[in-house]
Amino acid sequence: MGFFKNQFSNVVEWEEFRDDMIFWKWSNREIKKGSKLIIRPGQDAIFVNSGKIEGIFQDDGEYQIDSDIIPFLSTLKGFKFGFNSGMRVEILFVNTKEFTVKWGTQNPVLIPTPQLPGGMPIRANGTFNFKVNDYVRLIDKIAGMKDSYLVEDIKIRITSVLDQLLMKWISREGKDMFNLQANASEIARGIREALDMEVLDNGMTITGFQVMSFNYPQEIQDMITKTASHEMIGNLQKYQQVSMTDAMASGKLHGGGTASDMAGMMMGMNMANEMMKNMNQNQTHAPSSSQGGSKPNFCPNCGTKNEGANFCPNCGQKLG
């Protein structure tokens, strides 16, 4: 009998384990008397019969199926192994860890903005985290039709809706389109909640979503960097003046060419405008002669000597 016992015994375990595999199904095989189940750390084993969960085993270790497993199965607890007959069930091995996935926009996302009629083309990248949390839904929606499921399958599903979610939440939370990183936490929180609803029906949950960086077109990024370096965001005139001065100091504008002449003329006009503006401001704030000013010694109209009066005593001319 020992010969037949060894012949019929087999091992039920996750045979094709990969770190990026969410689940793997042991199926289309018969479990014989004397078989054992091996559950490794980070794995759950789910016994499924005719699409119904018979039992879930979560503690890692090595178990005798006929004595340690069958007595705990819901409808198969009274199953008796025969000499030539075994038990046909599917065993789904599930990876219980939290997966971390890197994501990035494949194409720029056009974010509506008044400054650019066609939208601001923005790229973004970061990570998201997910894990399996509902075995019933997992089996009903995915495992009932697939023998295995990879992280890449989830990534494809997530990235297919990510562009629209980025557009929605950047537009909603991106108050400063040129400093989106300041609102990255609020944007990421909104996207995480939306993605969680996307995968929840499949028995999984999004446990985290992070935006690492927003990337602008190079010409926009250059403008932001230069503007920030001069601390002049919003002061276009001053930005132009400093840019022109930088160009002349670097030698990029020199000689008697048209570009140099135009640059000098523009800078001169700007400086003249500033001088006129300052003069007008000074005149506006200058005290008038009527407020504490001195009176003329002689009337400018008739020449009569004045003794400090506001009007000429001879002809009535206003003197103050």
UniProtKB/TrEMBL annotation:
Residues of the SPFH domain: 27-230
Listed CDD domains: SPFH_like_u1
Pfam families: Band_7_1 (PF13421), Zn_ribbon_3 (PF13248)
The Putative zinc-ribbon domain, residue ranges: 299-319
Superkingdom as given in the UniProt entry: Bacteria
PANTHER family xrefs: FLOTILLIN BAND_7_5 DOMAIN PROTEIN (PTHR37826), ZINC-RIBBON DOMAIN-CONTAINING PROTEIN (PTHR37826:SF2)
Name of the protein this chain belongs to: SPFH domain-containing protein
Originating organism: Paenibacillus radicis (ex Xue et al. 2023)
